Amino acid sequence: MHSSGQTLNGSEIFFECLRRENVEYIFGYPGGSLLKVYETLHEVKDIHHILVRHEQGATHMAEGYARATGKPGVVLVTSGPGATNTVTGIANAYMDSSPIVVFTGQVPSSLIGNDAFQEADIVGITRPITKHNFLVKDVRELAITIRKAFFLATTGRPGPVLVDMPKDILNSSCVFDFPETVDIRGFKPTFKCHINQVEKAAQKIVRAKRPLLYIGGGVISAEASEELRTLAIQQNIPVTMTLQGLGAFPGNHPLSMGMLGMHGTYWANQAVNKCDLLIAVGARFDDRVTGKVDTFAPQAYKIHNDIDPTNVDKNIKVDLPIVGDAKNFLTTLLEVMPENKENREPWLAEINAWREQCPLTYGSEDNALRTEFVIDEVSRQTRGNAVVVTDVGQHQMWTSQFYTFINPRSIITSGGLGTMGFGLPAAIGAAFGIKDRPVVLFCGDGGFMMNVQELVTAVHNKMPVKIFLINNSFLGMVRQWQELFHKEKYSFTDLGDSNPDFVKVAEAFGCKALMADSPNAAKEAIEEALAWNDGPILVDFRVVKKDMVFPMVPAGGSISDMLLARLNPKTMV
Amino acid sequence: MKHIISVLVENKFGSLNRVAAMFSARGFNLESISIGETEDTEISRMTIVTRGEDQIINQVLKQLNRLVDTIKVTDLTRQPHVERELLLMTLKLSKTVQHEIFELITVFKGKVVDIKQKSITIEVIGSPDKINTTIDIFRPYGIKELARSGAVAIHRGE
Ligand SMILES: Cc1ncc(C[n+]2csc(CCOP(=O)(O)OP(=O)(O)O)c2C)c(N)n1
Ligand SMILES: [Mg+2]
Predict the structure, then answer these.
(1) Ligand 1 atom 17: the closest Cα is on which residue?
(2) pTM
(3) Residues A187-199: pLDDT tens digits?
(4) Ligand 1 atom closest to A470 (CA)
(5) Chain A residues touching B17 at Cβ < 8 A
(6) pLDDT tens-digit profile of B119-144?
(7) DSSP secondary structure string, B18-87?
(8) Interchain proximity A186–B71, CB inside 8 Å
């Protein structure tokens, strides 16, 4: 621990600042431009550096950690290829508003612009995918820049921030001065909602006959689940959530309607279609949610609360925009809410009728193993208490449908960017942050291979991640679209001939592995995996190859118009 | 509809790039953009001319505000403001049209900044509309080269 007023070099300042930002873990990978930093790191005992096996893995781990804990995730990589390898992870964090701070080494200041060895203009490259980024030009600017980076990443709508640090800056010294406060004149997010707008919202809510809460990840990052629950129950308003919003309201509560949108529940989408009041909180009317915008919630008066004003009136014109923090919005709303006089029972009955008409189901007549069963079973065995991480594809959508999320910060998934390869490193990152709940990963056989190298990181650090590999021998989600919309031309989506033996792969990494190919075997494997605590465990679930995620809104269609089942039952295998 | 937006930004490397890149990334129309220091050397003023329906312009303003380097964003379009652009233009010069050219320069309140045997360089200052008209009128005489500064604009004082 150093104090202000001491003369320190750039590398020492770097760690001293991280210490003061309460950083526990750095996910990193060394290189030429960072030699001084790693030299200093050798003596640092209170901040743990986790050596990844690919810099993309580091960014996803940082995001998994951030999403699970609410604290910013930290990445440290070298210049050039180290920096460019982080691009996908940064873009992912940007799309899903996750607070991560990425530190990149850079070639010495004097060489910048000369096409020096391992030079990449990472500030230029990441400008459109960061909330903000910095190139440090003077060692005296390093501490304040790091302070600003953490402040920006975690304040207002969270997001990734990148700090590029030239080698000479890390080597040169100055008097250390850690600024206790930061003030950035161009960055003043609106936290407090306009009271008149909130009162107006309250008036609309008590008068609505068919209100619906449409909840996004903003409620989770604002830690406003408690307030949401009070509002929904007090006012008897059903709640539908986006993929990132799952867990903001308990999925086992009768007012929970699960997810809306492309693979949402039939009843949630019907409710959107019929509601007379839509209250969007911390959600951004993404196209996977709205389907065709002209027919989205056509009868509803729309209230939209979001911390980011650009989200308001972007995709959908709303009637009552309320810019501000979700927790502030919900708290104020509860304070000003008059007594409810509307009887909501007919509306809830209508919704329940849709629920009974088209429930979420899956085949079980044969003894075949289905993904839905695996997820259902994991949900049961963990009692909805796990931190669930997914990759991208069919298994991801089934997770949203069949895992019952009870608590916030329970789903960690790549929504906005849809990044295959996100799951494994994100699960490892989550496991670093959360020790008292099981961390469960559902991952496709395609996406698993995209960051498989991080198994090393999991094994080496004994991270007890349950890797539930949903092995359908296909790039399932693409296969589904090929079946439905591309004449069943399964072009380059069949992995059956080329997939490795996943159990052997895992074992080669030193990871415990099991295989299950029937519902009974799956049940036992899940029990064994959940009980296993000596590092990671992988279960290779050999599920049916050509299962389909339903219901589904075809791209660009209205969400009231869902495909409920396969068009051509012949293709079921 | 055309909008003229004034943006105060941190006078830092990359600020212009962030704004220009945001326009292209979000597919917003960008007719002109100009930047220069203000009375405060830490702050630059950017003047942006763009076109779009109200909903788009609203997004433009919000996206500009969202950039960390922007300090203040003002849509001057519906407020009292002065808007000026500078045109520098070199024309072919010949005995036969010499007179007409000089007359037109007077009409447009232009100035001759350089004159050679076969060419004349003039400057004209005015609203972008006036600059458009100027160019149209001079075109038949043969424009060898022209440069426009893009609009700069400012609130009218009280
Ligand atoms: C990096 C990346 N490349 C391509 C895609 C397109 N894509 C979306 S889902 C999918 C198939 C995923 O297959 P798998 O991992 O086996 O999961 P499944 O759908 O079978 O559950 C593909 C290729 C993507 N989302 N991300
Ligand atoms: Mg698959």
Answers:
(1) A444
(2) 0.96
(3) 999 999 999 999 9
(4) 21
(5) 124, 127
(6) 999 999 999 999 999 999 999 999 99
(7) HHHHHHHHTT----EEEEEE-SSTTEEEEEEEEE--HHHHHHHHHHHHHSTTEEEEEE-TTS-EEEEEEE
(8) yes
Count CB-CB contacts under 10 A for residue A364.
Answer: 11
A371-542 CATH choice from 3.90.1200.10, 3.40.50.970, 3.40.50.1110, 3.40.50.10090: 3.40.50.970
The answer to whether domain B2-75 and domain B82-155 are alike in fold is yes
Residues ≥6 apart with Cβ < 8 Å to A546: A472, A474, A479, A483, A571, A572, A573
In the block, tokens 């995730």 appear at A73
Q: Which atom of ligand 1 is nearest to the CA of A495?
A: 16
Same fold yes or no, A7-175 and A195-357: yes
pLDDT tens readout for residues A114-158: 999 999 999 999 999 999 999 999 999 999 999 999 999 999 999
Provide the residue ranges of all domains of chain A, joining segments of one domain with +. 7-175, 195-357, 371-542
Contact A152 B68 (CB under 8 A): yes
Domain B2-75 of CATH type 3.30.420.40: no
DSSP character string of A360-394: -----SSS---HHHHHHHHHHHHTT-SEEEE-SSH
Residue with tokens 């799956």: A522
The amino acid at residue A125 is I
φ and ψ at residue A269, rounded to 5 degrees: -70, -35
CATH number of A195-357: 3.40.50.1220
| Positive or negative torsion for Cα A465, A411, A397, A130 | negative
Closest CA to B12 of B70, B65, B61, B62: B70
Superfamily designation of domain A7-175: Thiamin diphosphate (ThDP)-binding fold, Pyr/PP domains (3.40.50.970)
Domain boundaries, chain B: 2-75, 82-155
Q: Which residues of A touch B14 (CB under 8 A)?
A: 123, 127, 135
Class of the B82-155 domain? alpha beta
